[in-house]
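Reply to dn_fold:

You asked what the input looked like. This is it:
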Amino acid sequence: MARRRRGRPVHGWLILDKPQGVTSTAAVAEVRRLLDAAKAGHAGTLDPLATGVLPIALGEATKVVAMVMDQAKRYRFSVRWGEQRDTDDAEGTVLARSSQRPSPAEIAAALPGFIGRIDQVPPAFSAIKVAGERAYDLARDGRPPELTARQVQIDEFELLEVPDPDHASFALKCGKGAYVRSLARDLGRQLGCLGHVSALRRTAVGPFGEGDAIPLDKARELRHKEALEEVLLPVQIALVDIPALAVTGPEAHRLKCGQAIRVPNNVEGTVYATAEGRPVALARAEDGEVRPVRVFNL
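and this is what came back:
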């Protein structure tokens, strides 16, 4: 039996402007197919309802996905007042209704209470695991789990506009693990009017923004022109906040073999080693010694 082809060694980042109605998993699968890439993953799930920045890591870039996911994210989103839904967004079933509607001043006055380190209960329809099962699977089976609150970081939460009494639009900057749907739900409860996310767009993930993103249709078009690889961003672009350490060829070889190298004592903490402009390894520097943590095979 012939061995299944695994694809080509493609390395870098493709920043996708994910369209509505497509899951993040399906988007990654299509990009991987378009590039015939051996390995791909994404830096942070977007719900099917959501659009916007979905960083897709290819090849060696998958080794730093966790670092990108740890960085801040930005969103623009709209809340529909007057309805609580089981998914906390427009795709869910209505659980309760309210005739109360908040004024712009009331909305603005409530926002400071949601900025900083706050306790947040994730939506029942989320990818969090409960006793080995995804919360959304339990919820779809009619067994919505009782999820516990956890602390998340909200850096910025701004009211953009109130186009009509039923809707309000916001801008948000938040840390890892924060759910926009939970924020909309909790804000609606505090305002006494209920609410859910009616539209959601992610505008940035770590170093990647809307200006880096290409629509899925454009990616398909570039593939037909055999030009899709030309829009890939380098692996190391995700490491912009980590100090770079230039090493020699022999030192790079040692790091790639899992061995430590000596450096000046003033080099401390996490660094990424480079040789001739190419990333060699993520490493930890301590007491004049650098030990590799993740090695890049580029």
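Residues 242-295 form a domain with the Archaeosine Trna-guanine Transglycosylase; Chain: A, domain 4 fold (CATH 2.30.130.60).
Hope that clears it up.
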